[in-house]
Amino acid sequence: MHYDVIVIGMGLSGLMAARTAAEIGKKVLIIGKGAGSLCLFSNTIDVLAVLPKGIRFNDSLPQWAKDRPEHPYSKLGWEKIHRALSSFISLFPPPYSFQTTGIENGSILTGAGTFRPTYLIPMTMVAGTSLKEGDGLIIGFKGFKDFYAPYVASHLKCRGITLSLREAILQEITATALSRLFEKESFRETIGKEIKRHLNGETRVGLPAVLGIKDASRVKKGLEEIIGAEVFEIPTLPPSIPGMRILYRFKEWLIQRGVTFLLGHPVSKANLKGKSCEGVVVSHPPITNSYTADRYILCTGRFIGGGLAADKEKVFEPILNLPVFHPKLREDWFKNSFFNRHPIHEAGILTDPSFLPIDENGNLLLENVWVAGSILAHHHCFEEKSREGIEIATGYWAAKNAFQI
What is the pLDDT of residues 45-78, one digit of tens each? Predict the structure, then answer.
């Protein structure tokens, strides 16, 4: 029951922290009440998509962070961020790898038929980044309401068609169900032949990002052999099948390295003594278990992941009772317009440069607890389009700092 480090949270920051610790041979326990937000949002890896395409991170990010001295990136700098991203990339060797245009943002096709900037793109989506007018056939499926092929195609000035599925005759079909169908060779052969029948000179075929969970590269290759055209995926609404692939790859690697997973029940409380955490308690009635470690890394996210909670007066962190930076008056949490930048979305835990928690006066609160991911204060990751970058970089360096390497 005693570990070198306990990681609390199953999001991307928690997985990166666990991997970094396991990579140096530490005994790791990762605790999560669910699968984290990877399965909701992550199709690509955003680092800082507010920077225009063609602007190099090593040139522009230092100044961007300097102008925002309390942002998590300001504690790292581009070189450390890049090192963490390289560690992430190394977990995904070919054929299912992540690609980048260098040290700047590229563009990814969206389910709205537009392009948006991002940093790392899974290989199943790369062919869609350079799609030319009239060169793509966009495929949708009847009963799958999270992707409308004719709408996407109209923005791209390509053709879009919706195919019927026998499996969707009596019910709507979900992204997860479609991904499982694509993993079946018989289904791929049937749907591949049907797509080929509709080709009219197009050399690329775009489908919603549902080409299997565990071996998307094999599914892609198999379809291409049947269709005779290059296949690419287009991100859809949640749940994110590409996000599930990231989660499964991390779990596979971590289990092989002896990392212990405790899933299904959250940490209910922590045992604190002075400036030290001496253990955490996981309760799944009627059983309650305690787990201890030399170090702890808190990666529970903000409100969606339950890392932060709120009542009528304040925002609070429920496990370690760490103070949360946020506007003191509730009427200041939100601006008058829905489209304004709401201060509550920058709420979070304050840390020193090593990601140890501090109060508003800079006083150290806990000496053996590090904080990483979106629970950190002073960032607006969805507006900045920096969520995955923050989670990867801070998760990686929180673990590095915990073991002083």
Answer: 999 998 877 788 988 999 999 999 999 999 999 9
Q: Please choose, from the candidates 4, 106, 130, the residue with its C-alpha nearest in 3D space to the C-alpha of residue 51.
A: 106
- DSSP assignment of 169-223, as one string? SSS---HHHHHHHHTSHHHHHHHHHHHHHH-SS-SEEEEES-S-SS-HHHHHHHH
Class of residue 219 by CB neighbours under 10 A (exposed 0-12, middle 13-18, buried 19+): buried
pLDDT band at 370 (very low <50, low <70, confident <90, very high): very high
Question: What length is written for the chain?
Answer: 405
Q: Rounded to whole angstroms, how far apart are CA atoms 252 and 189?
A: 29
CB atoms within 10 A of CB 65: 20
Give the helix/strand (H/E) hosting 277: strand 276-284
Q: What is the pLDDT of residues 182-227, one digit of tens each?
A: 999 999 999 999 999 999 999 999 999 999 999 999 999 999 999 9
Model pTM? 0.94
What's the rounded Cα separation, in Å, for the pair 155 and 206? 13
DSSP 262: E
What are the structure tokens assigned to 156, written together?
A: 């791209």
Element at 287 (helix H, strand E): strand 287-298
Q: How many Å apart are CA 276 and CA 27, to the nearest integer? A: 19
Nearest in space to 47 (alpha carbons), one of 379, 399, 405, 397? 379
Amino acid, res. 340: N
Q: Which two tokens stand for residue 27?
A: 């005994």
C-alpha 183: how far from its chain's center?
23
Domain boundaries, the chain: 124-237
Do 111 and 147 touch, CB atoms closer than 8 A?
Answer: yes
Short-list 10, 23, 131, CA closest to 399: 23
CATH number 1.25.40 is the correct assignment for the domain at 124-237: no
Q: Coil, strand, or helix at residue 245?
A: helix
Cis amide bond preceding 357, omega within 30: no
Query: What SS3 class is residue 390?
Result: helix
